Structures are given as C-alpha cells and as structure tokens.
Amino acid sequence: MKYVTKNTLFAALALASWCTSVGCMGPILRHQSPGSTLADDVPSDATLVSNVAHPYGMGYVKLEAVGLVTGLTGTGEDPPPSPQRASILGEMNRRDVHYPNQILASPDTALVLVRGFLRPGIQEGDRFDIEVRAPTRSDTTSLRGGKLLETRMTEMAVLGAQIRKGHLMAVSNGAVLVDPNASIKDDPALARRGRILGGGVVTKSRNLGLILDHERQSVRISQQVGQSVNRRFHSYINGRQRGIATPKTDEFIELELHPRYKDNVGRFMQVVRNISIQESPMQLQSRLLLLKSQLLDPVTSATAALRLEAVGSEEAIDILKLGLDANDPEVRFYAAEALAYLDATDAVAPLVLIAREEPAFRVHALAALSAMDDGAAFDELRKLLRVKSAETRYGAFRSLWAMSPADPLVRGENLGRMFSYHTLDVSGPPMIHVTNSHRPEIVLFGRKHQLKLPLVLDAGPQILVNGLSGGEIKISRFGETTEQRVVSTDVDEVIRAVVELGGTYPDVVQMLAQAKESGALASRFRINAIPETGREYLKPSGDSQSSEKDAETAIDSFDLETPSPELFGRRS
Fold first, then answer.
1. 410 near 393, Cβ under 8 Å?
2. DSSP letters for 106-165
3. Cβ(472)–Cβ(487) under 8 Å?
4. Domain extents for the chain?
5. Distance between CA atoms of residues 441 and 194, nearest Å
6. Cis omega (within 30 of 0) on the bond before 34?
7. What pLDDT, on a 0 to 100 scale, did the predictor assign at position 159?
8. Burial class (CB within 10 angstroms; exposed 0-12, middle 13-18, buried 19+) of 85
9. In which residue ranges of the chain is pLDDT below 50?
C-alpha cells in the first residue's frame, strides 16, 4: 500500500481543480509503465509528438537464407531434394561453383537454414548475429567446427513449392559457435544448431521515422513536428549544425539516430515522442510545474522523467536533480537515468549505486552511464570491474567499451583476426567471460589464470590440448600434417597457441568450457553474463533489500514494456 504525504495530496487536488477548469484528456495520476508515452496527463494546451504521430522502423526485421556449412568432420549429409536444396544449387551456379552436387554430397558439408534479425536503426556496414540450424528432417548430426560460406540474406517467403526472396539486405559468413556442452548423443538438437557472432553485415540501412496519424496528415504539421524535434536534437556535419528530423512528405518525417542514443534506440524514440510541438514559453513553464510534481510521485516518475529529458533545458535538468534527493528509490533512478542522457555529472553516483545493488534497474543504469561523455562516469564504471557480481562486472566492461572503445583499458586486440580478446589488469576474483551474442569476445578479468594438470581438452575437431605432467601443455593440430606448440599452464599462452594453430573462437570457447567442467580451470567462467531486463523491482520492507536471487527469477509487468538497450539486448 502506498502512503500519500500531505503535500502530495494537496498537489493532486490542486492539479485536479486546475484540470477541471481547462479540460484534460484523462486522469492526471495513474499507474503506467516506464515506457508509456500517452499524453493523458499533459495540459490540454500542450501537444506532444505522440499525439499526432507514431514511430516507424522500430520492429525487428527477420532475414533468412539457405546456406552451406563446410569444414565438418563427417557429421554432415547429402541433402535430399527440396526447395532448400534447389535454392543452394541455384546460388552455387550463380557463383560458378564447379561440381556443386559433389560438394553437397560430402559428409563434411551441411545445408543449413540461416536466420538473423536487423535491429531498429541498424546502418550499412553494421554487424549482427546469425543463427544457423540443420533442417528438421536433415541427417546432419553436428555443426561443431563448421564454417558458413558467404550467404546472401533477404526477407523470404515460401509460395507454393518455391522460396521467394526479397531485396538483398545483408551477407553473412563465419565460424559456427555450437553450445560447448552439446553432444551428438545427449543433445542432438543443440548439436545441430549454432550462432555466428557478428557474422552478418548489413548492406542496406534501416531508416527511423515518424508517421503522422491519418487525421493529422498535412505539410504544415509535418514541418512543425520536424522543427520541434530539431530544436531538441541536432548533429554536426563538417562543423555545421544540422537537425536530425527531415520532413519528407505530408505524412512522414525521417529521423537520424542521435549519437547519444546509439545503443538505446527505444529510449531515443520514447524521448522524441514526448517532445512538445509549437509550445510557447508560458505553456512550457506551466508544464514544467506539472512535471515537477509528477516526478516526485513514484506512480508517474518514469513518464515525467522522460518528458523532462525531452525538454532538455537547464530548467528541466534542475527539476530532475530534485528527484535525486527523493526518498523513493524508483524516483531517484528515473531522475538519474534521464540526467545521464542529458550528460549531467550528478547522475553518475546514484546510477553506479543502482548498478551495483539493484538488479531490476541494472541494465538501464549501465546503458545510461555508457551514453555519457563524462570522465566521472568512466572512472566509476572502471571500479565496477572488480566487484563480485559477474553480470555487473561484465556489464561495466561492455559499457566502458561502448563509451570509449579505443581506451587502453578495454581496447584489447583482434586475436587471429577472429575475435576480440581483452586481458584486464584489475583486482577482484579471477574471471573469464565469453559471449554468445553481439560479437565474438573473450575477456580475462585479472592476469593470473592457470590450468591445473593433468588435463586433456578439445579445441574443436582438429586441435588437442594435452597436459599430463610437469608444468607444460602440448597443443597439437592434426590434419595432413601435425603441428604442435608447447606452452606453460598460463591460460593466456594456451589461448594464443590454439589460435596460432588455426583455432577459431568456437574452438577456444569449447576448450575453456571443458576446462571448467573438468576442474582444470580454477577461475570463474561465465558465458554471456549480461544484465537482464524484465526483472521485478522489489520494494524494500523496512531495512531489508531485494535479493539478487528473487530479482533474477521474477518478472515485472511494468519493465516488460521498457525497451531493452541494444547494448545488452540478446537478439541482435
């Protein structure tokens, strides 16, 4: 049960009286999700973008293709006649591949179905993850060790007995990452599917925009919306200021994603839809007074913070700073989050505390910190690299990398031109983190990671890691000729030797997972410990705090409507 203070009650009665005299479009105070952009608590003389337009380009676009995986060790098949086989043969003929039927007949190749999702606002040249799987009735037993040949991806549909393709939107290829724990015997379905991290490259950008509602379509309103958005957001081209909104027709305004929101497109569109249109200074002052009272009420604080962020003025920032001193943790969080996207240093301390202690808000707090151009935010994120929580640690690393990828702390190296490799000289429990989304990446937290002998590990189908005694490990690659490397038990040396012998990212991940499972790796090992959305915020009862375990298993209907930042989203 919520308790209403006397000041809050008087404010609500005053607002109700004022609204009765001028006319409002619904209740002033109501339960709403953080993602709400409905304007039923906005004064009747204020019109928001959301009152006249709805967003364009905010859904995910599914791309599909039929591809060919090679490099298998007898786990493929000769695919039977089907529309998919006809499609891959047509593509091989287009590329002038000799003897295509013989290639398909090899047990070292497999026909696969390829799928990927283009996120909102993705641009030409950007990368995204690819999913591959053997068809349902395929005799392929495993895709481990395979590599997808270059595949052209389009929107697809099956009409009759033929596969119809749309325009080319991406190309994909790369090494297939199969679940390291999947075996042909125990997990046949998992062994027949995998991912290629960052394996897709976009060939056609996706536009964002606003579509005017049918009854609002006119050149005048289109121009007014564009001008209002450009007063709030602009970018610089060759030193010249340029707005991000371009009215194209009487019903469509094209939007350019503002750089501060590059990893949180959903929030960008929320803010745009909360921008006011043709608002006079007197109207703005009246609305700011309303937003101030709404910000301090947990029921309306999320939407009020968004609307203050959409105003973006010094007065709006001052009001948001008042929220940082509120007693309610939700009010403090929403105020700090909006301030971060306005690059106000005051947001840093509360967001870092939230990222450390409150799992329900962690993902949004880290995303907001990564959007800042503030040295204090970088320094505080760096401190989170040594905490106990794996997801807080790795979330801080990803935020730092998004904020400043060239910084020596997080820059790392492109190991073997196959994956991003980072060794962080930080304190805290030794931990090794690998990804199965976004991009192939290995992060070593701390420099002291050792393997215990004896051990025998697989690094893909052709590389064996063998350490039986002494302090040395022999790494062998078997093929037409046998190559070997002898290194110490240091994990860094072992990884580099595997890559020198031709090991791929999936090979290294398989080796590390086996080492952890067998007890040969003492360091903590985590796969994709990414902060999650959709967690319930459990209000403190007395002095007690919400528990990490409960927060990881519960779902909050409010947060489900809050867009997930692309920085941490899994479907990319």
1. no
2. -TT-EEEEEEEEEPTT--TT-EEEEEEE--TT------TT-EEEEEEEEEEEEETTEEEE
3. yes
4. 61-202, 209-263, 414-527
5. 16
6. no
7. 67
8. middle
9. 1-39, 542-561, 571-572
